[in-house]
Amino acid sequence: MTSQAILITLCCVAIAVATLWFVFAVKLEASDFAPHRSRLDQLLERRDAIYENIRDLRFEHRAGKFSEEDYEEMKRALEIEAARVIADMDSLTGGAPTPATRQAMSVKVPGKPRA
Asked: What pLDDT digit, counting tens, does each position of 12-33 carry?
């Protein structure tokens, strides 16, 4: 064999060994075994995001970025969405929805289809 053939063979062997080491030596993390997020976890995350959006909206309104009318409309839509998420959480956990969440479930938000 020529030296070039030996070099190519050694490179192929090195790549094969590196590939096998990478595949079999990877350590699994705890998150690999964690269950997927439940529907309740997703709703809790959505609720927190809506509350944060309401806080941001209030701040931006106070900073003068929104008119009173626009602020009230966006705030109402976010509050209705929050009530719907909370109602979904209630139904998942077996809690009885409050009158406010029942009312929010019956209100149609413009541009948003009902669930």
From this structure: 999 999 999 888 887 877 766 7
CA distance 47 to 70: 22
Map out the domains of the chain as residue ranges.
3-106
pTM over 0.85: no
| Amino acid in position 37 | R
Distance CA 90, CA 96 (A): 6
Query: Tokens 């705890």 correspond to what residue?
Result: 30
Cα–Cα distance, 42 to 26 (Å, whole number): 30
Q: Contact 74/110 with Cβ under 8 angstroms?
A: no
